[in-house]
Design goal:
This protein is α/β, with parallel strands linked by helices and 393 residues long. The chain contains 14 helices and 16 strands. The protein folds into 3 domains: 2-81, Winged helix-like DNA-binding domain superfamily/Winged helix DNA-binding domain (Arc Repressor Mutant, subunit A); 86-197 and 379-392, ATPase, nucleotide binding domain (Nucleotidyltransferase, domain 5), CATH 3.30.420; 208-369, 2-Layer Sandwich (Nucleotidyltransferase, domain 5), CATH 3.30.420. Strand 12 and strand 13 (223-229) form a beta hairpin. The protein binds zinc ion (ZN).
Length: 393
């Protein structure tokens, strides 16, 4: 009896696995020919034909001629993911604004909008109402159903149900964001910490694409990290891993809102950066980014004015690399906007001072290429993940 089930299950499992691999490849890496799919995935042509035909019958992919011909002869058709086959909503709640976007299968952004928040005065109920109303506006522009949502929050988020336990820079404690958005949007909603989603974004569509051991370290008012080791997100108890900003680096330093003194965040967060540059702490992000760009044009001046800041950034990263042994650290948000010479010094410091970096023949430190969209892209991929799985079963 059991052997019958096993014999029956095996081809089905293989078919599902192959469908999943092809769909994921097309979603993350874009259109390609059947021949490329066969080579990359190590499957024979008849299997690829069966899988692509099946995905096309389900409306998930289509085939078309390439827009540019290469070489002589009949061009091969490209297999293209159909954006409208699965639309997800991504929401990035930040200290000073909320950004939202609709992503189609394949990762294209089909619509977006954002609005400002008064820093420190974002009432959860108002943000939730704003998200629900904006979701209707975005979806109505496309006249297509949205099937899932992902939400990025700058705080400590319970993985199981999206409860925001503590988002200090929003002033939120125990906000049932996942539950309320699931009820309001009437679709599955994944809520996660912003840096965890940043790591997912960088690993699927950014500079860490395909790197199995990586982390995303992002700084704004707060500083946090997302960790992927062995290709899997590392979340810790209830999903609360990632509060790198509260690693104590200077016991005689400034008081931190978390109750400790001398947290990394007090030395390298946005306020510390503003202090180093003699800028007001409440400066708008547009102005702060413009200041950093200007500073980048004068490398010697940048290194001089940010000497202490650079030391603290390097010191914290050395600790983090020693603890988690990533091959690549991707810097996001304000850290990604720091002048090039500053990041060069930080990278050198990690290479020279981290025993783990030396052992793995150097952990690389790179700037995010997704920039301010990293959280949105990660939120979208978190929403896509169960859909891709369901689509192939
Ligand atoms: Zn702290």
């Amino acid at each position: 009896m059991s052997s019958t089930i096993t014999e029956g299950a095996r081809p089905d499992d293989a078919r599902r696995h192959n469908r999943g691999a092809v769909l994921r490849r097309l979603h993350l890496d874009g259109p390609c020919t059947r021949a490329v799919l066969a080579t990359e995935l190590g499957l024979n042509r008849s299997t690829i034909k069966a899988v692509v035909d099946g995905l096309a019958d389900s409306g998930l992919v289509s085939e078309r001629l390439p827009s540019r011909r290469s070489g002589a002869g009949r061009p091969s058709l490209l297999v293209v993911p159909s954006p409208q086959a699965a639309l997800v909503l991504a929401v990035d709640i930040r200290v000073d604004r909320v950004a939202m976007a609709l992503f189609g299968l394949g990762g294209e952004i089909l619509g977006r909008l954002s609005w400002r928040l008064r820093p420190g005065a974002a009432v959860p109920r108002d943000v939730i109402t704003g998200v629900l109303e904006s979701a209707v506006v975005l979806a109505s522009e496309l006249s297509l159903p949205v099937v899932a949502a992902g939400v990025s929050v700058p705080g400590v988020v319970r993985h199981s149900d999206g409860l925001v336990r503590d988002a200090p820079h929003l002033g939120w404690v125990d906000v049932p964001l996942g539950e309320q958005l699931t009820a309001g949007l009437r679709m599955p909603v994944t809520v996660a910490n912003d840096a965890e989603l940043g790591a997912l974004a960088e690993q699927t569509r950014g500079v860490a694409r395909g790197v199995a051991d990586m982390m995303f370290v992002a700084g704004d008012v707060g500083v946090g990290g997302g960790v992927i080791l062995g290709g899997r997100a590392i979340r810790g108890a209830s999903g609360y891993l990632g509060e790198l900003g509260h690693m104590v680096v200077r016991p005689d330093g400034r008081e931190c809102h978390c109750g400790c003194r001398g947290c990394w965040e007090t030395e390298v967060g946005a306020n510390a950066l503003c202090r180093a540059l003699n800028l007001p702490l409440n400066i708008g992000r547009g102005e702060l980014y413009a200041e950093l760009r200007e500073l980048g044009a004068d490398p010697a001046n940048a290194l001089d004015r940010l000497a202490d800041y650079t030391s603290w950034l390097g010191l914290g990263l050395v600790n983090v690399v020693n603890l988690l042994a990533p091959r690549l650290v991707v810097l996001g948000d304000l850290f990604a906007a720091l002048p090039e010479p500053v990041l060069e010094v930080v990278g050198t410091r990690v290479r020279e001072r981290s025993i783990v970096s030396r052992a793995v023949e150097y952990t690389e430190v790179a700037r995010s290429t997704l920039s301010r969209d990293a959280h949105l892209v990660g939120a979208a991929e978190a929403a896509f993940s169960p859909i891709l799985e369901a689509a192939v079963s």
